[in-house]
Amino acid sequence: MASIDLNADVGEECGDDDALFEVVTTANVAAGGHAGGGAVLIETVTSCAARNVAVGAHPSYPDRENFGRLSQHGEYDAQDLTALIRNQVLDVAAACASSGTTLTHVKAHGALYHDIARDPEAAEAFLAAVIDVSKDIGSDLYVTGSPASQLQPAAQLRGVAFVAEAFIDRLYNPDGTLAPRSQPNAVHTDPQLALEQATSIALEGRVRASDGSVIDLAAQTLCVHGDSPDAVAMASVVHQRLIERGVTISPISQHVH
Questions:
Q1: Residue burial 140-165, b: 16+ Cβ < 10 Å; e: rest
Q2: Most C-beta atoms within 10 A of its C-beta, which of 29, 163, 184, 233?
């Protein structure tokens, strides 16, 4: 029987996180770089713990003005990038500890997500932060990224578990990368379209790309962006349909070793 994890980016001070926690199994909590942080971070982690939603850290470049979606690649050397990520992840880990739950993973946000997917050196700096925090909290963290990410081979070399992720609310290019948000229809707003995409990925490991072709896309977790206007509707209909199709929905952290 197929099993899949549903994750959402939360704690970003937009969207209906509480409603998302009813249907997702894993949360990526904003760590103050692009949004959230402080009291919002603590409140979000507390809500996750109350709903048995697995908690991950969602670090980004410090760029609240652009919601972390403008690359700052080249503005940080490897050591500084590691420190930047490490500090954000530690903030989420501290909130987890005070809420009686455990940090399970780290997923980069926005431009940082794409930069570590393309650049092996950035991926190494990211992994160095993850490994540092894993040692600090005494628990191995996994990392989440796109199936074609440079993060995957880098993580395997460092002995860090990698979880491949696909998006139910984003358009894919024929090469398996995400269509830029500047491109028309790059972000799905129709729950039916998100449902078809999620079902195809979860059951067949395939997705329809921007040119109409069907490409392979194997993923262990499906993401909905918490800041999407229809995030709750999309996540709810996907959750319901996958259950109906016999798919088990559970936190991927239960299966990662």
A1: bbbbbbbbebbbbebbeeeebbbbbb
A2: 29
